[in-house]
Amino acid sequence: MFHIKAVFSPSVKESMLLVALIVASISVSLIKFGAVPHLPILFSILLLICYGLLKKVPYRQLESGLVQGAGAGMSAVFLFFFIGILISTWMMSGTIPTLIYAGFHLITPLFFFAIVFVVSSIVGLAVGSSLTTVATVGVAFIGMATVLDVSLAITAGAIVSGAFFGDKMSPVSDTTNLASSIADVDLFAHIRNMGWTTIPAFVLSLLIFAVLSPDVVLNDIEKIQEFQDGLLATGTIHWYAVLPLVALVVLTLKKVPAMMNLAVSSILAIALSYLHQSYQMSEVFGILFGGFVSETGVADVDALLTRGGMESMFFTIGLVLLSLSMGGLLFTLGVVQALLGKVESLLNKVSSVIAAAAMTAVGINLLIGEQYLSILLTGQAFRGQFDKLGLAGKNLSRVMEDAGTVVNPLVPWSVCGIFITSVLGVSTLSYLPFAFFCLLCPVLTVVFGFTGKTLTYKKAE
User: Fold this and answer.
1) Nearest-5° angle of CA 183, CA 400, CA 122?
2) Of the N and C termini of the chain, which has fewer Cβ atoms inside 10 Å?
């Protein structure tokens, strides 16, 4: 994105006004009117085009900026298609149901909050969606916490922490793939590099939740049993169901490109699904495109397992292309360059650039409340600065996730914050102090930026 040349040099005041108008329009549309982000972004693109035309910039050059911006995300688009297919095939083979079933066997009254955190993490890793995890197993845990008469705020904090750990680290998570694509980093190299901040945050969170866990007795296991029975009813819980995951890990270690890795794992999953279910080829094609549909009769289980398919990625793909197109226009019109030029003298050290990128991601979450935009806009704005300092792209992709992905649920007016509050019945401000994983990640990424620890430079790649 930063390779796009500016065809105009706006003043800093005009640049700030444009950005303020865009932020305000997106924020009001999302927060006040509950609009999907696609529409206000499209209106923002129209605003930028009108501004460019008023400044006598030829329409063809504006159009070229749009196309170049969108083109920066084409690798992500194809990766998203394969993610949708992988999720649906992992449902067919039983990979995801088996992982979730195994996670529920960890539930004990001892260290309740810690176990909730771990199981939510496992489910989040398996399904690659924080909100799906919250809306299914999260609701079950809130019900159990009510029965046990333990803190709902801490329980919600554990659920959110685990769900967003999974969203951050799962190879089938759209935010994980988006961050790696924007920074032009291999998906699995990105995930491995995130381990430097994610593993300490996970361990610290686990210890805190263990210490906070009360001494309670679990008498009502009906909700857990209902989930387990529903999972068994799918007929997909088998030992061999984990083989597609094993293949994914092995190919990752062998540094096979992400797209080929996902394709091989998907093909293996389809083959394994025939060991417990006979599918017609027309059914297979339908599942690959439209996603897997669970029909156990248990509403929560069906909601958890009905997902995947290429079609499920269209919402994300549309948002990515629109956001990148807007970014292309911002660069073409010189808006980003003007703003960065104002503070460029302050961004001459690794620590200051990482801190600025992290604060930008947090700031976009606070101002706009949109998770994807916090990743996209931060990546677009700071990739050039990271390159100038010789920092490898995976440093930027890690910052985008540490300060972008996991911060969104902590903002009461954000997409994630509103959803979680409505589903769990616990206000964002109530669970915020206990969402330890989400709080630790941005702190650790800034601390490592100042110490220089775990950073990778291009010559060292």
Assistant:
1) 105
2) C
